[in-house]
Amino acid sequence: MKSTNSKAILFTLCLFIFIDSISAGIVYPIMPELFLNAKYGLVSSSSFLSPQMLYGLAFALFPLAGFLGMPIIGSLSDFYGRKNLIVIGMFGICISDVISCISIFTHDVYLFLFSRLIMGFCAGAFVVGNAIIADISSDEKSGMNNFRWPMIASILGFVLGPLIGSSAALAEGSSSLSLPFLIALALGWLNLYMLYKYLPNTLNKKSTEAFSIWKVFKSMYSVLNSKLLIVLSISYMLFQFCIGLFIQSISLYLAQSFGYSTGNIGLFFTFMCLGVAISSMVIQPILLKFMEVKSVVSISVLIVVLMLLVQGVNELQTVDASLWLVIVTSFILYLFLPLAGTGFTSIYSNLSSKENKGSMMGLMGQMYSVTWFMGGILVGYMVAADEAMMIFIASGLGFISFLICFFMKRFV
Fold first, then answer.
1. Which of 64, 146, 344, 357 has its CA 20 to 30 Å from the CA of residue 176?
2. Contact in structure between 162 and 26 (CB atoms under 8 Å)
3. In-domain check, residue 205
4. Per the structure, how many domains does the chain have?
């Protein structure tokens, strides 16, 4: 594939990921309001589950649906081409935004949870984008550099997403919480048009076989054809579990412990995402000049673990916990988080064959989904009971991931 075509494909994918990340980031600032605001939130006093449990469930259902959606869409893209699967996924995300708005106006928390299921399943289109990038990458370093641009697009979208989510503070009542989803819907339709018009329809292989979920999952798991990949997968899942616990709990922790409003939470995530942009644009190119991808991953995971440990100690101080320490450690964590993420993805891409890259990206999406689902369930219970203990659990999981990376990097 010519480099000019590769650049055009990267640009189109980055635009897709940018708009998709806006939709994903919108929800973070308003989640506490949706589940804790007794006046016009989603949760009524007669609800069977507590607001905190429903909050955790809203986060958990997204990756639970992705557990099915990502591997299915990723594997199908190996057979039926990348473009069609991405367009279908984006259309489903638009539908989920419509259902979210309806659930807010009707104060139906379970309809909102249903919309999270739809969005989670359709977000499998994201791994198809990763598969396309893997297609045009020649080795680990080129892969990590190529995956850097969608990461930057994702972060820029995630910077804008919380700011748009903060627009809920501009209005009152149900309309205030539905406004961000309406904006996401408009951007989604724009994204759908751009994908349909400009993304080339790459087709790896044709198949006349009838669709079978069993065949899709069998094909996906067949890429784990070595002990090395299995051990690498354990490390990746532990790392994602670690990160999932932190990211899914931080909004509620800031709201409950420091009285953060929707606007303040939006600014917090904006500041964190600027750290990721700095990491991808500045730190990553420098490190790759002097280090192998495996070493970058190991060091990055270790720094993330250290920052979580500091946060856990800080959160033990229930009265004198330092907000500034939370912000500083979170920023450092976000500096090294993308290095580990793109590094893992690049290693997986390099270890998979060309015809199985979609399946491999789908498998990574499934591993991400199951760990974030478990994290969301745990968050719903522990963030109100013992945030510090949850952060210590996250750091412990991350440390085991680091040990696996450290001792395995010489063999990868």
1. 64
2. yes
3. no
4. 1
Handedness of CA 134, 412, 154, 390 (dihedral sign): positive
Residues with Cβ within 8 Å of 83's Cβ and at least 6 positions away in sequence, in order, are 195, 199, 200, 201, 202
Tell me the residue type at 140.
E
In a domain, 116, yes or no: yes
- Coil, helix or strand for 291? coil
Which residue, 246, 193, 185, is CA-closest to 375?
246
* CATH number assigned to the domain comprising residue 13: 1.20.1250.20
Work out the angle at residue 206's Cα, subtended by the Cα atoms of residues 201 and 211, and round it to the nearest 5 degrees. Answer: 105
User: Burial of 200 by CB count in 10 Å (0-12 exposed, 13-18 middle, 19+ buried)?
Assistant: middle
- Widest distance between CA atoms in the chain: 65
Encoded tokens for 136: 């045009």
- Asked if the structure places residue 75 within a domain, the reply is yes
Structural domain for 145, as ranges = 3-200+217-408
**What is the chain's pLDDT, residue by residue, as a tens digit (412 residues)?**
444 466 777 777 787 777 777 777 777 777 777 887 766 667 765 566 777 778 878 877 887 887 777 777 766 776 777 788 888 888 898 999 999 989 888 888 889 999 989 988 887 777 777 777 776 666 666 666 677 777 777 767 766 776 676 665 555 666 677 888 888 888 888 888 877 877 776 655 555 555 555 655 565 566 566 777 888 889 999 999 999 888 888 877 888 788 887 778 878 887 887 888 788 888 988 998 888 888 999 999 999 999 999 998 888 876 677 889 999 999 999 999 989 988 888 888 777 766 666 667 767 777 887 888 888 778 766 655 577 888 899 999 999 999 998 887 555 5
Quote the DSSP letter at residue 283: I
Q: Which amino acid is at 80?
A: Y
